Structures are given as C-alpha cells and as structure tokens.
Amino acid sequence: MNETRQALSQSMEQVKSRPRIAVIALISGLVVLVFAMAVSVSVGADPVPISTVWQALFHFQSHVTNQQVIRAIRMPRAVAGAFVGAGFAVAGALMQGMTRNPLADPGLLAINGGSELLLALSFALTPKLPFSGLLVCSFVGAGVGAALVYGIGSLSRGGLTPIRLALSGAAISALLVALSQGIALYFGLSQDLTYWLAGGLSGVTWNQVDWMMPVVAIGLLGSVGLSRQITLLSLGEDVAVSLGQRVMRTRLFGVLWVVLLAGSAVAIGGPIAFVGLVVPHMTRSLVGADYRWIIPGSAIFGALLMVIADVAARMINPPYETPIGALIALIGVPFFLYLARQDRGIH
C-alpha cells in the first residue's frame, strides 16, 4: 500500500503543473467573469447602466420597469450562460483526459447530436412536456450519442484511435442532426427549432435555470472529485492500472458527469459545439497538465467564453441576435483544423 501511494505521488509530481500561475489565472478569470456577467445584464435592446443593475440586485424596487427586466429576463440569461459554458467546457476536458484525444468535444462526438435528436422527438410527440422532462430526454440522448460513437469507432481495425474517434463522431453527429431536421420538417417544427439548433440563450427563464443549476453543480463537483484519476488516465491506461486505479470505474463516472454536464447545457443553450474543444486546451496552456487545475479552470473560462459570446451576439446587429453557435464556430473550426494537423495531440 505504501509503495502504491509513493508511486502515485511520484506520478502526480511528474505531471506538468503551475500551481501559482493556476491560482492567479483562476482568480483573475472569476473576477473577469463577474464583470462580464454584469455587462451581459446591462446590454440589450434597451441598455441600462451598471448602477441600475446594482440597484436591481441589492435594492430591488418592483415598480421600476428596468429593474423588473433585469431580474426576470437578463439575470437568468446571464446565469444560464455561465452554467452552459462551464458544462460544455468541463465535459470536453473530461473527454480529452479519459480518451487522450485532443479532438474530443461533446459537439464533435455526437453527444450534442444525441441530445438534439431526443429533444426534437420530445417537441414533436410531447409538446407540453415540462422542462424537467426535457432535461431527462437530453441526458438520454447524450448517452445514446456517446454509446454509438464509441461502439462504432471500436469496431474498426487498430482500435479506437483519436482520428477514428473524431471521424466516427462526425459521421454519427451528421446522421443525428439530419434525423432531427427531418423530424422538425415532418412535424412542422422548423421555425420553433431553428434558433435553438443554432445555439442561443434568448428566452431563458428562472424555472429553467432552477432545474439546470443543481444538475450542472453535481456534474462539476463530481468532475473535480475525479480530477486526480483523470490526470493519471491522461498519462496512459497502463500507468493508471499499474498504480492500482480502477480504470473502468473512472471512465464510468466520467461518462456520467459528461452526460449530465453536456445534456443540461444542450437543453438550455442548444447544441453549441467547440466550447468543450477550445477551452480545455486554452486552460491547459495556462495551468499545466494536472486536471485538478484544468477542470475548475475550464469551468471558469468556459463560463466566461459563453457570457462574452452572448454579449457579442446581442451587439453585432442589434436589435437582432446572432446565433451564439455561429460565433463560437468562428473560433472553434480553425482551432479544430490546427489540432487535426498536428503530428501528436496534447494530453
């Protein structure tokens, strides 16, 4: 037992990490996130000053229209954006660590597509389903999408390599999206689903946030609790097994947290891709390869990216909103192509 613990400590010490820089980066990210959320609440079709936001938060007056708008419409949108971004980013970080695949992302590996298909079926067959039911459907769809990708990718000769995983994910995602669009056309849901499929936070209510927040919080806490095991798994399955780690158990819980995080994020914001791809890599470049820092860092910076993207979506062409998914894709697609061209991935 002592030898195993000593080997575990030595392996963790070999992982490149920058604790001092990581602490500074996480604190700075939190400060910027709070400021970005304040800006998100203040901008819109009718911009309001930060002072009014402050009054709505701490000195609320129900008869003031601007404060009502802030409390009922803009605050849930900002909070939802932060949780959606954190969910996508941490799900991507977990997937990259578990699979040692730098291209892993909920959007690229059909997790988003599976949620999208089940939600489209829900809109068509049970249009009055409450949001709690939609969350469950999103979770089930995410699990089905992941199972299809890993199952089909594993059937190929040579095993499940990163490129095969990405290719099978792209193929299954395209199939699930096509099925979703077919269902939308057949049942006359095209207009209802178009904006949601493009990704956006318009119309988010406190009821939706109240259902999503505990689920994402459980997923984030579970991911942090699993971070040491994910770090060892990212060094290689042989290393993890030799140190006495239960690899299958780690992956089982990892997939559970990914399904919870990505499923709830899709239910609120739509199938937004590339957040889970870009943010973990950016975080890793700041804090090092230790997932005890990567996971909380991904949560903070993923939330920050989503809140900033939501602000940009409302400011590019007011009073109309640009789909958030399109804005993030402008960053994510070149980044994906860059990673795909590398001879070796970042673990």
Structure report:
This protein is mainly alpha-helical and 347 residues long. It has a single domain, classed as Orthogonal Bundle (ABC transporter involved in vitamin B12 uptake, BtuC). The chain contains 15 helices and no strands. It has helices at residues 2-14, 19-42, 50-58, 65-99, 111-125, 131-154, 162-186, 190-198, 206-225, 227-234, 237-242, 247-269, 275-287, 291-315, 324-341. α3 packs across α4 (65-99) and α5 crosses α12 (247-269). The two termini are 28 Å apart. The mean pLDDT is 83.
Compile the SSE list and pairings.
Blueprint: H1 2-14, H2 19-42, H3 50-58, H4 65-99, H5 111-125, H6 131-154, H7 162-186, H8 190-198, H9 206-225, H10 227-234, H11 237-242, H12 247-269, H13 275-287, H14 291-315, H15 324-341
Helix pairs in contact: 2-4, 2-14, 3-4, 4-9, 4-10, 4-12, 4-13, 4-14, 5-6, 5-7, 5-12, 6-7, 6-12, 9-12, 10-14, 13-14
Share of residues in helices: over 70%
Topology, number of strands: 0
Q: What integer is the average pLDDT?
A: 83
The low-confidence parts are none
Assign the CATH superfamily.
Answer: ABC transporter involved in vitamin B12 uptake, BtuC
**Class by helix and strand content?**
mainly alpha
For the record, what CATH class applies? Mainly Alpha
The CATH architecture term is: Orthogonal Bundle
Q: Compute the number of helices.
A: 15
Silhouette: globular
The assembly state of the depicted protein chains is single chain
Distance between the termini: 28 Å
Compressed to H and E, one letter per element, the order equals: HHHHHHHHHHHHHHH
Number of discrete domains: 1
